[in-house]
Protein: Clavaminate synthase-like protein
Amino acid sequence: MSLPAIDFSAFRNGTEQKRRELANCVTEEFKKHGATRLTNHGLTAETITKAYEWSEKFFKLSEAEKAAIANVRDANPQRGYSYVGSEATSKVNKRDQRGEFQICEDDDVDQELVDAKEHFDYTRDGDEYATPWPSDASIPGFHDWMEGTFLPECMTLARDVLTAIELGLDVPVGTFTSCMSSYVDELRIQHYPPLAVSKLAAGKIKRCHAHTDFGFLTLLFQDATGGLEVEDRVNGGWLPVVPTGDPTEVGVYVGDTLVHKTNGHLRAAVHHVVAPVSLKNREDGVMPERFTIALFAKADRHAVVGPMPKFVTSETPQRFPSLTALELHNKRVGQLYDARPKEIGALEGGPGEGEGLEG
Ligand SMILES: [Fe+2]
Structure:
């Protein structure tokens, strides 16, 4: 049992009826676990393979070269290089009394949990939060291709998927995509160094602790190593997202912004990265290094991402405050680094901040 891989080709080439059928199929999968996988979505194997090649070259840069472009750990969009252990995904979500993962609103989480990964975050040139790129002398061609070619292709796919969700939810086309016109999506390349399985035993270190992502949705390309799991909301436990071997396969994960917009009608995918299936429950062995590439599709910073009227009814009252996308995003990034912005006003007449995300 794993996430299905849905052929997405009809979304660009099919009849209107086929597009709608596909949109409904994709949206139904999101309702199950907040996640699905797509193939035949427009990005070629050649393009994705090239992105991995650039990624491997980047992480082989010297420590000094990476340190020179380090991300500033504050409550602002992440840009540049983050060293192993810098980000603490365990601090952004926790289980509520019903066992569901919610946005964490306090400091009552284990402060010692470590994510064993390094990453580099960037956005398009000209963004108000500029990316510190490595010099072209260090890695010639990296900036040009990753920013000029790969990022736009990923942005296009993310908007196609969001259009499919608009159709699947029966809201006007453009409901989500019309508030993405400033293209502030972020792309992240991630490297998980080799890790002895024995290091996982104490429960403090994972490749990535359970969390939800912050944007509208995340596209995730993973190499053949495995280890990613998504919370199984149908049967309980976790669903291993075992790589199919198709290099174009991309995971799509619902993020917090879409949860807020739909007033919890869609729930975010809870995911973590653990030992691959072949090394699970073993006390020895070494997990091989792992590379992934994520596109975080984001709403315009000043767009209000509070619940849409369609999803606020007497049975489903408004559950989230009407924050801007930037307020929501920075609140979440601040949690990663214990650099939280001041409390952003609680929802008037609705649930308080402490009640967080729900079902
Ligand atoms: Fe994530």
Summary: The longest helix spans residues 142-169. The helical segments are 9-13, 16-33, 45-59, 63-67, 142-169, 256-261, 325-336. The chain has one domain: 21-347. The radius of gyration is 19 Å.
